[in-house]
User: Fold this.
Amino acid sequence: MELLFYLFSAVMILFGLGVVVSRNPVTSALCLVMSFVGLACLFIQLDAFFIGIIQILVYAGAVMVLFLFIIMLLDLKAEEGRQINYLALAGGLILCLVFVVQLGSVLTSFEAGDVGKTPQQPEMTTDKNPEGLSELAMERMAEKKLPDVHLVGWTLFTKYNFPLQVVAVLLLVSTIGVVLLSKRKLT
Amino acid sequence: MITLNHYLFVSGLLFALGLSGVILRRSLIVIFMSLEMMLSAANLSLVAFSRFHLVDGLPNYNGQALVFFIITVAAAEVAVGLAIIVALFRARQTTSVDDITSMKY
Assistant:
């Protein structure tokens, strides 16, 4: 398990580095897809199966296809012959270095974060029946399996029912906004 | 043993990478991709907190609900942002931030 954590983290970070350093936008986009796949694997390792699948479906599937589509539509070429702005380069690197050093110093003194993954996944269960959770999910929990999708859905449709519907309106608004922005002229 | 701090550090590294991409790169599309990376880094720390802070022996699903909303909003934001980039490209024939320094043309 530890080996897998390091493997997926390395995949995520290295391909993330590829996004920043590569000069060709298509390479950047494909590196970002791989980075998101590594991230989804980390989610699944954290027993967040639903979020992991959604990460692949929405980000690696839909969003990155949109990015590649726009790159090809605009026919963007690799930036060549552009002068590197050394001041911006130094500023960006220093800022990120300071951020990472600060992160390290905070995390070494963050004692609450020094907890392992206990209990392990098969033992993760509860006797308390959350109100309205389906019988299938309760059976799963009795079998010592984590009904992740049931629980996410239960949380979204009970506690966060109103925000869920507001997000639906947001999606509608953004769809209309995209259509309006993409139209050449309003008639 | 992999602790919460490991996940937080990896998520912080991904965030720093995204931040450097936003600052260093000059292409609007790549800046946008780096923004997505920063949002995903925040998602990773939220999921890690949700897994390590158990409620009644189950992960804290409030965190995962928040991740769900972040992913939804990010998808909407990408659609609108790319439409704006396409409109900008039509008007100026460029996507480099060096060439787009004025608000109005």
User: Anything to note?
Assistant: Chain A is about 70% helix and 0% strand. Residues 46 and 117 of chain A are 9 Å apart (CA to CA).
